[in-house]
Amino acid sequence: MSKKIAHGYHLVEGKAFHRMEDYVVAEFKQVGDNELGLFAIFDGHLGHIVPDYLKSHLFDNILNEKRKTLKVEEDLSQTSQASPSTFTGDVARVDDGQLAVARAFGDKSLKEHLSSEPDVTVEMTVLKIVVGVAGFNRIPFWVGSLQVTERASNYHLQLDIGGHRWLSSLRQSLIQAQADLKAKEADIRHQLKDEHRFGKMPKQEVQRWLMKVEETFANAQHVEDKVSKTKSLFRSCLGKLVDETTRALKQVHTEGHFSGSMVVNDPSTVAVNLPAPEVVGVTDVREEIYHYLMGNEVGMIGVCGMGGIGKTTIMKDVHNRLLKGSEFRKIIWVTVSQDFDIQRLQKNIACQLGGNLSDDEDKIVCAGKLSDMLREQGRYVLILDDVWKGFGLEDIGILEPTSDNGFKLVLTTRSERVVQSMGFKKVQVPCLPMEEAMDLFLSKFGQDMLPNPTLESFMKHVVSECDGLPLAIVTLAGCMRGISDPRVWENAIDELQGDIRNINDMEDKVYRCLKFSYDHLARKDQDCFLYCALYPEDHEIKKQEMIEYWMEEGLIDEMGSIKAMERSGHSVLQKLEENCLLERVAEGMHVKMHDLVRDMALHITRQRFLVKAGMLLKELPNEKGWCEDLEKVSLMHNSMSTIPQTIKVPKFPKLTTLLLSHNSLKEIPESFFEHFPNLRILDLSHNPIKSLPNSVSSLDKLTTLLLNECRELESLPCVAKLQALKKLDLRRSRVREHWETLENAKEMGELNKLEVFEGGFSNVAYLNMYAGNRKELYKYSILVCPQNKPRSFVQNSHWSSRNLVRLESIEIDSRVAIVLPYKVQQLHLSHCKGVTSLNDLGLRDEPDLKVCELLRCDELESVFSSKCDQIQTIEYLRLRNLWNLKVVVGVGKSCGTIFSSLKEIVLSGCHKIKKLLSSDWVLHNLESIDVSFCGELEEILTPAETKGPGPNDNGIQFSFPKLRSLRLCSLVGLKNICSENVVMVCDSLRWIEIDCCQKVQRIPLYLPQLQVDDEGKLSPPNSLVEICVDTRDWWDSVEWDHPDFNVKNAVRHLLKFSDRIALTGLDCNKQQLNLFC
């Protein structure tokens, strides 16, 4: 490309008053595929020799990659007898070189503002210019860059000037700033370590500063790498970036000053309290244990007693009591159980300390690391519950307590020998005396039954049969609760006094009481209870999972709907909990069995169940355990990698359940499943198996096939014969090719009993084929994603995965409707192309759509291009990194119920949207607004076109009665939360965060719940908990009006300042790319 360049020169008079003191030259050079516009200004050096040389050689030297620097002095000496050293006198400095560049390329406006838009007319989009002043001796050499880029038919100019020596100086400053900040960080961390102990946590401002330090260091390293990788010629262009990074490091260093202590009370320690029933009696035992823990004489305490006597309950009480004090920095609780394993115990202790130990590491190495972790805790108490056999503390990595280190170690066990062999101080837990036993019984049974003298005598007789064992007492109380008929009590006494044979390792009295409670359950409830014993000891069982197993086994009676059957399952669980046969844990979402209760269940089922769950088996149990009468086999949570090719017993006709999950199985013999002709439930999940044998296809009674987390599984044998199949789970498996051959109407028609499907397809066509030929499913989770794309199946703790469809990395043709399964509740789109709005999906009537999450769909311009029914049902709307999103809802006549069900809206990284909510939407159920990193967003709540407030309006109120949280973060273009004279009435607001929204000048919130006393302080009831803003200056300047009092003064005690630097729009884009790409 040939262009004529007009330029000016002789801009600055030299001190020698030589007419040609200053020289200028400009021309275009072709370098590879790029055309460079080159411009230079330089001093004349009181003669013509140097200028003549530079005119001929300067640009060639600059563009010569092999010559890293300009060797003017050497070249001159070869072409002329003159030497640079012969030039004397002061040398003129060209201080207006930037202006020369501007004039050379036609833009005089750069004289005052380097960032203005130049009046440049060129045909190419990008024009790169190298500007240089060459010199030697005292004459500085500098190189800059001028870049012209096209954007929306306008050209934007950015001129960065720096020199190699200048850049070197800047890099040294950068290195020094990093060193200073590292030293500051080390000091802060040392001080934090000294002050931190159990029950304390770092201040939020300290945590935020440390996070900012990490981010700043990462950015500095990125800049260093960029400078190192850039060719020498162009490094000077990075001078501004290096300088800005240095200043950022220094700014963070300045912010690292904190007044007072660096820690505050940790509110989460309240949640550390272990759930435990009220302890009745055994006061002497509890006080003895506590005395040893507080004193220096005893460091290792062994609490022993028979099963069910209350050892764990006592230690939970002691644990929670210790939390209220400050004598120990850490209280650690770990359950050991009967299937003791060194590495598992090491990992469990490390987990309690917030650490992690690898499965691949040697036990001795893990012991050393664990010792270091424990040593760092300072004074701590380690409680090991349910220890069955002795072990060496050094083998685990547990430090032996001494009077100097202040460590304490407690274990509970049924075996006095364990206590003695390990050298612990024994504390024996006795049975309850009759008086305390009656108190415990009545506390569970109910005090209102005592006025009946006859009933009281029966109670005493029943309690006496328990021999003071708390577990037996509690179990019987739960079983007899609400019974007032004396004949029933007499029958209970007769049963308890019956002749029951001895059971190894189980106390007769406890077994008798537990068995009594079991016997009084209905038959179906008994079967449900016994099913729980298939899980490992001390395993926390998910309630929903347990109920689904019961339903699949036929233990729950058929009802009008699956939901009704689920409710019936929850009713059974409640009965088992009330009878103390199951213990509620994990906030009521899980249950577990006391080990004695599980022992009883396994004893009852010893002829029908083979249970070796969680026993660390590496191979199948020996053949003695396999009998033809087996009904259920549980080998879950072991380490088995292979299954023998042959089993002596040819058939197991009664076997209905085979649980092999959480093992290391890589292959299964071809004929293995032929042994189980009546199998109903097969769980192979969490195994590295690559394929299933064809014998799976012969399981024509199979109702449940679980293969989730079989990440190596690529294909299945034909499952069309599995006509009884109701549940198929393929989540996170690699099964994909199978479904591409299976998905046709004929084969799917043969799976017409399928009710639960969790898996995926490789394209929309297979989804349409599947959904178009299916009846209504009760539960499904479906991922549609190409085979060559990573599969990231959604698991969100906030939302259930029920009835979820996720489209990921899919090309969507708006001309072809997507057929979704009936009653879809959650729709997630990620990295999809071809969709400009959800209307493009051709959604049919979906009255159950509750959750909509959209991520990185770059062509999406609106969530809904027009009004549709789904807008009324959505409860959760999450929009992230939608680069072209302009509106949430497009044009169309308002139906008056837009988003009437919406509870939460999240908008992040959507830089083209200017308005978020409209005042004609029905947002009475909205609970949370979370908006961040939307560079061009101007307003949160916008009046409708027909209802907007006019200039004469005195004020308009919009009600948000359920809004609890408002978060606005890094919105550099946000001018208003809502329009002038508009107020948001929020009756329930608890959290407000307005961070890095510098243009916002008014907080338009009216909180009716705020009331003040005579001193101007907030008085109860007040729901507002916290207000977080970035700087005090912004808070001081922002307006927040209230009709009755100065609201800013009233809430100042709720203020928290983040003191973060506001991000530019470009920074927001970059941060979003880093977070979500």
What does this protein look like?
- InterPro entries: Apaf_helical, At4g27190-like_LRR, Leu-rich_rpt, Leu-rich_rpt_typical-subtyp, LRR_dom_sf, NB-ARC, P-loop_NTPase, Plant_NBS-LRR.
- Residues 286-446 form the NB-ARC domain.
- Belongs to the disease resistance NB-LRR family.
- This is Protein-serine/threonine phosphatase.
- Pfam families: LRR_8, LRR_RPS2, NB-ARC, WHD_DRP.
- The protein is α/β, with parallel strands linked by helices and 1077 residues long.
- The protein contains 28 helices and 43 strands.
- The strands form nine sheets. It has an 18-stranded parallel beta sheet, sandwiched between helices. Strands 1-2-3-4-5 form a five-stranded mixed beta sheet, with helices on both faces.
- Strand 14 (583-585) and strand 15 (590-592) form a beta hairpin.
- Helix 13 runs parallel beside helix 15.
- It starts with 21 loop residues before the first strand and ends with a helix.
